[in-house]
């Protein structure tokens, strides 16, 4: 069973664009890959606009190569609308990654308490 996550960014108008990622959604999986390979606005937007990923790889091509679906990205007018949608639809998402204000944030989907991703990885000694 995968550790499901969503990878999203918030644009300047507060709109949320998100993609689903099926495998390795925990911070030392998807989170670490985001920090090391998608840690700027253009890369964050690029990966969040894919709609569906089986797994996240170091390159966009690698991430797209093994996906089993080609869903469109999820687009919401606000973070609260996005959160409500995931709760209402029982999406079974365990982690949500959000690129906002030029950095990645992460929240467990049942709490929606976003913290900077680098701080979570530092606590887990990935970035030490």
**End-to-end distance:** 29 Å
Provide the residue-averaged pLDDT.
90
Describe the biggest sheet? 7 strands, mixed
- What is the helical fraction, as a range of percent? 25-40%
Report the uncertain regions.
none
For the CA atoms, what is the radius of gyration?
13 Å
Question: What keyword list fits this structure?
Answer:
single chain; 128 residues; alpha/beta; seven-stranded mixed sheet; 5 helices; 7 strands; 33% helix
Characterization of this structure:
There is one protein chain. It is globular and about 30 Å long. The model has no long low-confidence stretch (mean pLDDT 90). α1 (27-37) crosses α5 (117-123). By secondary structure, it is of the alpha/beta class. Strands 1, 2, 3, 4, 5, 6 and 7 form a 7-stranded mixed β-sheet that branches. Helices cover 33% and strands 24% of the residues.
Short overview:
The chain is 33% helix and 24% strand. The chain is built from five helices and seven strands.
